[in-house]
């Protein structure tokens, strides 16, 4: 019976991870049709408020529920059901108090926040963002209770349902508002109400699936000391856990509060500053997509790494760490090269025109250090060094802020913000690599495999560049359809080169393939197919 229960938990955790991956991809993709309908000005308005709402989503999925579920599971394992229920109620009240304070803050200080950003017209949008925080207590607590009881279904279904309805509502509302010739700020408010609809659906799904029961306690009395002690730990641990998921949002928040004001300070007129920020924000979904796969691979290896360390299996730990880092270099490097080489047709294909292509190419450079950082942070998490990513992100945000302040006025364009992004992620990458080295670990174990990764990226980059410049580009028309075909064909071509290298070279060693038997079977079938062809 115990083995069956463990199997169900593993399947549930896998399902939850799959749901989170699907929601991330959906979150990155929907902004493309949104920009197409709302235009760069409408996209600017939405992106100025999105990071605030994004914080709610991260806390409600990766922060509070994870910590609460762990605490509930520990109490239940020791037969302390009453204490577990008490923790749930303390958590709900603590998150509710926090959400209420933040909501009131946004409602009363919306104008001040908008002025600080540099666009007073954002005031009504800030008030809507504040309302969104009121959904945080129910979403977080019900997910935490479900996961603590080893029931992953409610969290997974609610997250997918919330995100799907959110995206659907945003796009439908935007389409209707554009059709009625609404201005960009009205479109932005409509999109935020679409997000609120998603949160409502998430709460409904969770309430139905958990039967609306948070906890039942007999003769319960509130202890103020216990309340504050528990919630202090809850908030501290939640922030540590979800920091890596928040890193892109934190950088976006720095951009929200600095880019427009800095452009205005050097004489750029309001509307041009707003449009420049909107065009710059085209890079955000591309950055998100570029890091999703790396994050997924890295997080999948963390439990294996932690288990190997706990069992003192040093060679296995080194293998999982090395594979994680190698995949980060391969995926991050491939995404970076691909976007830099193909940004012009990709920009035209996704966002209607080629505006800001050079700025977006520079911004794409940050994908590589970002993916290596995320892999390194996951490795350090496996070693129990969760405080190091916190330091790295804190320093990274400071570098990003300083870079924006220095480079945006110097270049008088958003190019300065893109350079600051690259610089900040590079510093963060350096910190985690140094921290791994300081653990007495060799950063590169399989040197030959790493060399194959580098050669693969060089071959892929040169091949795509040559085919693009001298074969395909001259025969394709300079239309959106032509750019779309060019981008799709060349990205597929580059992806095939990387996949072929993964299959037929020693990019992964025999021992590493053997540790993944299902993938090994796929590899053997593919090699057999290639040799027959």
Automatic annotation (TrEMBL):
Main location: membrane
Pfam family, one: Polysacc_synt
Localization per Swiss-Prot or TrEMBL: Cell membrane
Residues that span the membrane, as ranges: 12-30, 50-68, 88-113, 125-142, 163-181, 187-209, 239-260, 286-306, 327-346, 358-383, 390-411, 417-436, 448-472, 484-508
CDD domains for the chain: MATE_SpoVB_like (cd13124)
InterPro entries referenced in this protein's UniProt entry, alphabetically: PG_synth_SpoVB, Poly_Biosynth_Transport, Polysacc_synth
Sorted UniProt keywords: Cell membrane, Membrane, Transmembrane, Transmembrane helix
Presence of keyword Transmembrane: yes
Membrane topology listed for this record: Multi-pass membrane protein
Keyword Ion transport: no
Name of the molecule in the record: PST family polysaccharide transporter
Organism from which the protein derives: Shouchella xiaoxiensis
